Amino acid sequence: MIHRLLIANRGEIACRIIRTCRALGIETVAVYSDADATLPHVIQADQAIRLGPAPARESYLDIEKVIAAAQQSGADAVHPGYGFLSENAAFANACDAAGLIFVGPGTDAIRLMGDKAAARQHMAQHQVPVLPGFDREGASDDELLAATGEIGFPLLIKAVAGGGGKGMRVVERAEDFADALAAARREARGAFGDDRVLLERYLEQARHVEVQVFADSHGNAVHLFERDCSVQRRHQKIIEEAPAPGVSDALRQQLGDAAVRAALAIDYRGAGTVEFLLAPDGQFYFMEMNTRLQVEHPVTELITGEDLVAWQLSVAAGGALPKQQSELRIQGHAMEVRLYAEDPARQFMPSSGLLAVCEWPQQPGLRVDTGFGEGDRVSDHYDPMLAKIICFGDDRDQARRRLARALAHTRIAGIRHNIPFLISVLQHPAFAQAELSTRFLAQHQPATGVEDESLPLRLCAAALCWRDQLRARADDDPWSQLGGWQHLAPARFVATFQLDDRLHTVILEGQDDALHARCDDQRLSLHWQSGTGRLADTDSHHSLTASARLDGEHLHLFSNGHTDSLLLNPNLGNADDAARGAAFAAPMNGTVVACHVSAGSRVDAGAAVITMEAMKMEHTLRAPVAGVVRELPFAAGDTVSEGALLAVFDADDTENAG
């Protein structure tokens, strides 16, 4: 029996583990870095111990500090969560040496499955199908290039020590192989300290289907069915669901049997996930095994009614599996999205800052797993996931519709987020029909929310929300708020906003049930229900439901999943003149890993200029305009802060062009 558990992690997964421990009567110990001192997981735990400064290598990844914290707290067990040290064999060994129960598999299993090449070879020996590929230890670049002739294109370069999509590149043509290999090695070296890679044949229309397995120390192993995680961006999962749509009972049995066979082949213990590629013809192939609890475990919990963390703790304490295979059943359907602090307008780069607004939705069938609340700060030192929004339904379509509705009613401001993008995926006809593959986003290109035709309607909604809030305040003090708006006539309201460095003017005339609006150069006929926040454009028949929070000179508008943070009545100079130099700045703290051009180079709009590394992922910054690179203040290897000037361009004179 575990009495006191140290959680060697942070944020959402730490909070989720604490929830189960409370139900079981187990005391919890949180650890934190300086950046996380006030986050919910620190507050919710029975104890909390500081590890060190914000960088993960000086806090969450420092094995000695984590073990010392466990000993100081009197913990008898350590749960690693996922990420950080969760699949680190040295950490599991250190726990054993310190007399601590490690809530996870043995070190041999972690080490074997952590080496993707060795894992492939081991699975093939135990009749688990693997893709054609090349996984020889220590292969040189020339040897890898030679192997492509036998594998063929497209192929996948995969980091041997990898995970989470890092160190992976899809290569379509032989002439792209050398650059892709260099990038994959560089990213793998930065993320894992190991630049070894293997090659596998790339299945363009395959699905990512994984099986949740559990094993105990008494020789028992079961599977808790499968999940579909095919919708991915840069090999990172975005939407997960269980059970996998379109999987027959026979195929489910085959997948489950292969996953259990894989677990037994390595004398596994605890929770694990065996990941497969499922081809259109029904054949499936082993990709890897994650020797930990998965981010997407909630969808499995919802369709089985089981608490997988409780299972982990029971097995780690030496108990037998809580249930046998014949006792496990699937009921309903569950779907999960990963809500990230990221900016779709900047190639989904991570976004950090203070959560000025953070309100999670409430509705039937909804579960929200998060480690953040309003007033918390999202750090640029860690993964940018804010929350997992999970919905359960009687069937897939009900779960999907509930999930889209929950996202539309989530209110997040202060950082950029991917909610509109997630809604567009959930509402895409191909997704609704479960036409899934790992290339779903590339093939269907759901809207990111960057180019959004609803912007004029949202700006009108912002003006109306602002007007109503000012009127409500004016009822108490009619003179206190007059400086922010112009009441030019009894039924006329004028608002000037700044949004993303652009100025917008909205003029409203008439009564709420018959409004005429001009938003910049566009005219709209509107119907506004202030009590419900419902706004409709009677000409286009477009509508939205809006709400807002007024914060000093900023108005945060929430509508259909969008967040618009507007500066009210801004006083700016000529924006065109300010942009003339076409300079661009670092969107986050990070390291320059490559400069693709030099000072004096001519570039086209969209050409790669600089590649930055942040949060262990590479992000390529592209020229905002066509012209000449006048200045590159930083070189490869330099560390830069958010907002630092990375390049200056002399833009081509479009008036004289051609």
Automatic annotation (TrEMBL):
Highest taxon of the lineage: Bacteria
InterPro entries assigned: ATP-grasp, BC-like_N, Biotin_carboxylase_complex, Biotin_carboxylation_dom, Biotin_COase_C, Biotin_lipoyl, CPAse_ATP-bd, MCC_alpha_BT
Catalytic activity: N(6)-biotinyl-L-lysyl-[protein] + hydrogencarbonate + ATP = N(6)-carboxybiotinyl-L-lysyl-[protein] + ADP + phosphate + H(+)
Cofactor: biotin
GO MF annotations, alphabetized: ATP binding; biotin carboxylase activity; metal ion binding
Domain Biotin carboxylation: 1-446
UniProt-listed Gene3D superfamilies: 2.40.50.100, 3.30.700.40, ATP-grasp fold, B domain
UniProtKB keywords: ATP-binding, Biotin, Ligase, Nucleotide-binding
Coiled coil residues, start to end: none
Pathway as given in its UniProt record: Lipid metabolism; malonyl-CoA biosynthesis; malonyl-CoA from acetyl-CoA: step 1/1
Segments forming domain Lipoyl-binding: 572-650
Functional description taken from the UniProt entry: This protein is a component of the acetyl coenzyme A carboxylase complex; first, biotin carboxylase catalyzes the carboxylation of the carrier protein and then the transcarboxylase transfers the carboxyl group to form malonyl-CoA.
Protein name: Biotin carboxylase
